[in-house]
Write a structure and sequence with these properties.
DNA-binding, 2 domains, homotetramer, 5 helices, Arc Repressor Mutant, subunit A, about 120 residues, about 65% helix
Chain lengths: ~120, ~120, ~120, ~120
DNA sequence: GTGGTCTAGACCACA
DNA sequence: GTGGTCTAGACCACA
């Protein structure tokens, strides 16, 4: 995995794991990979993974069972709420950034459509 | 100005100044505010502003004239290119993040439209 | 049984068993539940129970008879002393903690009375 | 400072600092000692102090200012709430522990009064 | 095997 | 000077 050096790594790991949950790679109740395994896979220190996990535990998305591992919450309402929240955050940030570049609302939507169309061509 | 504490401040200042240029607050050839003034306005240390400026100079967007101050480049093609580049970066990142949240292309566009509509209501 | 995850589980098990003895669930000379049974009841690993028992044996509160099991000491003076000691420890800690929160002696007593009164209402 | 080795050190540091705030050693808006200084004073690693601080920041009791230090919140309502919460937690735990030792409500109150009286003699 | 805590030490961003 | 992040490595509690 590639990390953006402008943002803390633990923060990116947290987002990465959230994405895994929201896209069904990690289903509710599923066991997360062992912390040490994640550290190896992401070529990152164990403590860094732990910090990401710690925040997810505090947020109620992950529960830790002593000696057994970390597990995705089975509270699907909580997961749905997380998805909603992350989506809104992304939309808000993207909109504000593009708006700041002096694009009108219509230009922003048009730009996005165009981007997706182009991308489609490249990836097909 | 509000700073996101997950991203280096100098980096956010750079973006802020780019935006000023692209939205016409700072026209080609215009003199940038004095570094010390910027530091005061942004309630930030002088060193931090200096770092942001340094990167803009390296990128050829700002030229520094000894004893006179810093100026926006008069190379309008360079500015247009910058806008294009920043726009694409934003679109790409937004798309990838939302895609990672398991939204389809259509859902992303619909979500953005909806976000803009909602926002319009709030701000009108 | 609920465990406080800030304190070692073996330590909490030890306290739990002491309480059983002091409240008469486990009388002097009584046989303790089998280690494996305790582990199941407390949903805890056998090793963890064993560790708690080990410390109680060292403290002279429990005696182990090979092949027969573990038994509460018949030394009632020892048990009385244990109760006295645990009570004082609790009082001391509670007092110090509340004192550290800037409560006066009178406020501490008043607070405790109030807490008990409230609790009585809830549980009646 | 003496640490109880049954509870995480960062946890005890957090409580220690909370107490400092509630007893007026650290007033609202006051600057906390530098992290490195705290680490030296408490003969503990910098990271351990930072972990305690991190939780206080998340809880909204402390705010961090880049390059300047950490400060007690000026939100006195938040501080009052914290005191209330910590007091209740202490009372609840003390009560339950003593209750578990087979003391009646009256015995608990009497025991506390007696403890305070004894203590008064010792300390006068 | 699995997570939790802590240390020593380094490097960076910011004032 | 002051805080934030990360690493390497150790030791412990628990299953």
């Amino acid at each position: 995995m590639q990390f953006d050096d402008k943002v803390p790594i633990y923060y990116q790991i947290k987002n990465y794991l959230y994405h895994e949950m929201l896209t069904g790679q990690l289903t509710p109740g599923a066991k997360l990979p062992a912390i040490r395994q994640l550290a190896v896979d992401l070529t990152v220190n164990v403590n860094t993974v732990q910090r990401a996990l710690g925040e997810m535990i505090t947020a109620g998305i992950v529960t830790s069972k002593r000696g057994k591992g970390n597990f995705v919450t089975t509270d699907t309402a909580r997961l749905a709420q997380l998805k909603e929240q992350l989506t809104m955050e992304q939309l808000e940030r993207a909109y504000e950034q593009l708006h700041a570049l002096n694009l009108t609302d219509d230009e922003i939507i048009a730009g996005l459509k165009q981007y997706i169309a182009q991308r489609g061509q490249q990836h097909d």
